[in-house]
């Protein structure tokens, strides 16, 4: 039993050593350009994920309410194009405010839709709850 525990401790120590070496390598090779490239990529991916989620919410609201708001979809498309502009911004002083604008605007559409469609959403939830219970 003791030998198995010793082997486990050695494995953990090896993993910790690998992680430690990795962070030492990162600190020795840190570069602002690499950081900004990673941040730009993460911003674009997060924004597209947000837009996809909000798009699905709008589709759900359209199905429930029976009406389609083309303006909301058009606005989301505009912000999807603006999201691509994040890839080309080089300076962080411009990038971070632009990212905040591009990432937050679709959520305003989400809130606006939830508020404006609240009555039909609540009625739909009541119907679903009655059917289930």
How would you describe this protein?
The protein is an all-alpha fold and 133 residues long. It has 2 domains: 30 residues; 101 residues. Helices cover 88% and strands 0% of the residues. It has 5 helices and no strands. The N and C termini lie far apart (54 Å).
List keywords for this structure.
mainly alpha, 133 residues, flat, 88% helix, 0% strand
Summary of the model, kept short:
With 133 residues, the protein is mainly α.
* General form: flat
* Helical content (DSSP H or I, runs of 4+): over 70%
Give the mean pLDDT.
87
Q: Count helical runs.
A: 5
Please give the structural blueprint.
Elements: H1 2-28, H2 32-65, H3 70-85, H4 92-116, H5 118-132
